Amino acid sequence: MNFALQNTLELVLVIGLGLLLQKKIAKQDLKGVKTIILSVALPAVIFVALLKIKLESSLLIFPLLALAFNLILFLATKYVLAPSLPKNEGPKKRTLMMLMPSLAPGLSCFPFIVVYLGDDSLALAALADVGNKIFVLILLYMLAMHWYHLRSLKTIKTSSKSKLRDLGLALLREPINMVIIVGLVLLALGLNLESLPVFLQHTIGELKMIMAPLILLFIGMAVRIKSGEFGIIVSLLARRAGITFLVSAAFVFLFPTLSPALLLLLVVFPQSACSFWPFAHMSAISTLEDTDAQKKPTFDIDFAVNVLACSLPFSTVMVIGIFSFDQLFIDPIVLLAFGALFIGGSFMPNLILRLKGDEQSEPSGNYSTYVGLNAQSQSSEDK
């Protein structure tokens, strides 16, 4: 049996076990599992991977590429994704502009990179995630505060600086970031994993082993997609994936001499799910609006939850599919074709609805609830 196909079947089987456990695991209990993954298992994997690479100045290209991708996808969201929503849906559009350019490789990409590409590629992906985190944790927070201050009935001038400082401290205290910093410091000092005490090596190795099965079970247990906005969200995620394929094709054209593993990394890393951090920023803004009697919310929190719920399983399927046919997805022509296919396919539901008649008529299927929500919010402002 093909190696990639065998790995895929193994991963799908573990995810299936997670699906079977859904009825036995309460939704709030998943927070504990997620904490173990992001605070213990994944940092151990990244730490081991980092200490296996040689620190070179050329590695700075990876976080810069990730940050460039975030910015490109942000512009694409503003001019391609958000305009798909009705003009009166300002909160939903701003929500999309926060979520769609963000990446959460820790839950949706890193586990599969380890299985298919190994620790060396994971280390490079972890370095790339530094650029993504700068965008997600700092730039998107500043954007959210900017929108809030523009629309707030009572501008709180001191909150922005204090919250940005607190956010910086939270960034430094995050286990994954601490591990990356410690790993880079050890590499700069010329140390590696073998330089550590044997008991510490074994402990980190044992923690590393629990990551892959634990996160696959988590994906299976966490998939609880709500109906209603499902259709429009999936079409937007498909369009995001299509744009991502086009950007990856451009990167592959620019760096044709890279190894197959690095080319795959350029393809799968941008296909990561939407990050939870923009949701945290939007929730903080929502709390501020409650205190200053803001009647017209900046963001649509319920819509954000639905996008996150759909994004993780969608990205998981995309990443597994890419790795299962790895030789196919390192061809830039194939990437361009898939990008055009996903973007074109994402517009099909809207095209079908327009062919049926007036845009204001109620469509059938998954879009009915979505259009009903639009009708209830005709008075909401666009910006």
From TrEMBL:
It comes from the Bacteria. The keyword Cell cycle does not apply. Keywords: Membrane, Transmembrane, Transmembrane helix, Transport. The chain crosses the membrane at residues 33-53, 59-76, 96-118, 130-150, 171-189, 209-225, 301-323, 329-353. This is Permease. It comes from Pricia antarctica.
